[in-house]
Amino acid sequence: MRTTIYYGPWQCSAAFLSRCESKCSAQGLPLMGCMWLADIKGDWQGRFLLMPAEAGGRLAITHCCCDYPKVADPESLRKVWSRSRIRFREEWAKELGTWPNTAGRAWPGHHLRDFLHGGDPTAPGNVLPVPDDVHTTINTEYPACYAPGGKWLTPGPERPYAD
After folding, report:
1. Is 54 a member of any domain?
2. Is residue 160 part of a domain?
3. Does residue 26 fall inside a structural domain?
């Protein structure tokens, strides 16, 4: 199995925006924006019934910026993440391979639902490894996703990158 991750952030496709709108409205919250953070591509090569075979798939990682209330103490959630980071990365590696790093420095774990809006610090589906520069870009764009009427409410292309 070979995993390739393409990183955004990109504007969500119309289909992803629609899913986010449904998700937010199911919680009784308005949609403020949608960010397509990454696309994970998995390619498999092997044998099936003694014959060579290959398959693959993609998983889009999006963030719905529902109008979540802000938490009073996001630093307490950050402390939970700091204490759990190494164990989290070890568990992640069991399923997906070694946590990515650059020159021996582990990539940050980006929390899809951020601490300010009550994101779970250790939920496996809430943390994505991202390179430092991408993490900085995403964190810079998050406030705009929660602001009314921004670009993150405008649909983007079906696939914003090329393999």
Report:
1. yes
2. no
3. yes
Widest pairwise Cα distance in the chain: 58
Read off the pLDDT of residues 63-117 as tens digits, 9 standing for 90 and up.
Answer: 999 999 999 999 999 999 999 999 999 999 998 889 999 999 999 999 999 999 9
Residue with tokens 């993609």: 58
State the DSSP code for 117: G
Number of domains in the chain: 1
Tally the C-alpha atoms within 13 A of residue 149's C-alpha that lie toward its C-beta: 0
Q: Is 39 inside a domain boundary?
A: yes
Token pair, residue 24, equals 């937010």
Phi, psi at 89, each rounded to 5°? -65, -35
Q: How far, in Å, are 52, 159, 162 from residue 126 at the CA level?
A: 36, 22, 26
Strand order in the sheet with 51-66: 2-11, 31-48, 51-66
Count, residues in the chain = 163
Helix (H, G, I), strand (E, B) or coil at 108: coil
Task: Flag the least confident range among 2-6, 15-19, 65-69.
Answer: 2-6
Look up the domain containing 7 and give its range. 2-153
Angle 100-106-107 from CA coordinates, rounded to 5°: 70
Name the pTM for this structure: 0.86
